[in-house]
Design goal:
Helices cover 42% and strands 22% of the residues. The chain has 248 residues and is α/β, with parallel strands linked by helices.
């Protein structure tokens, strides 16, 4: 799928017809054209194998066996879709998927979730800012392992980062706190003053817990303490795209 997203192919796997119809109506109101289909568990595997799907939403109310089979069928599809499970807000995290959606109870809620799906599928430009090439490589590797479509760029210091942000439309910045010259907070302040709609994730190896609070007060979207792991970045991405992030 290119950066100019003009059509989203969406499949909802749910047993209850009212649930299928709610998603169908919401998809018809989406901000871009959505080629929508709804399947019951018995026919989901055939539908996934027959046609390409960008987003597959699996209803958590399916039986454990049917839910597992639907997720496995979606994981085996090529090209691979993003796989979300729509579950009650207090539902537990489910393994093997790309994120959780809070199951909608109204058309308005379903419309918001369709837009979340669209946003998650559109490629996002990401800038990694760190004076350590090793650290930039680690963050890049973790981001590339994500199932989300990320267009990743790098900068070694604050001024270069600002120049890149001014010249290109970025969605996220992973920003190191401890850099020579302009440090992370100075860079964050300039970013929030000039490019207000970018989400900045502050990274640091410093043990001072007060830095996290200061970063959020300065407008950081999230805070990552080094060393961090793929699960930590995945949760930041889920939050960025508007997915529901269950408690651990």
């Amino acid at each position: 799928m290119s950066g100019d997203l003009v059509l989203l192919r969406m499949l909802v796997i749910a047993a209850a017809r009212p649930d299928q119809e709610l998603w169908r109506q919401a998809a018809a109101m989406a901000s871009i054209p959505v080629e929508f289909s709804a399947q019951e568990p018995a026919s989901a595997s055939a539908a996934l194998a027959k046609t390409g799907v960008d987003i597959c939403v699996v209803d958590a109310d399916l039986s454990d066996a049917n839910r597992f089979a639907a997720i496995e069928a979606a994981r085996a599809a090529r090209p691979a879709p993003l796989i979300f499970v729509a579950a009650p807000k207090d539902g537990a995290r489910i393994d093997g998927i790309d994120g959780m959606l809070t199951k909608p109870s109204s058309l308005a809620e379903a419309r918001k979730l369709v837009e979340v799906c669209i946003r998650a599928k559109i490629p996002t430009r990401v800038l990694i800012v760190d004076d350590s090439s090793t650290m930039r490589s680690i963050v890049r590797k973790i981001l590339l392992a994500s199932h989300f479509t990320l267009d990743i760029h790098e900068a070694a210091e604050g001024m270069d980062a600002l120049d890149r942000l001014r010249d290109g439309k970025f969605g996220m910045v992973f920003l190191d706190y401890n850099m020579p010259g302009m440090d992370g907070f100075e860079t964050l302040a300039d970013i929030k003053r000039e490019i207000t709609n970018v989400a900045v994730v502050m990274m640091t190896s410093t043990l001072d817990d007060a830095i996290a609070g200061r970063a959020r007060e300065a407008g950081a979207f999230a805070f990552l303490k080094k060393p961090f792991y793929p699960i930590d970045i995945n949760r930041v991405l889920e939050h960025y795209y508007g997915l529901h992030v269950p408690r651990s």
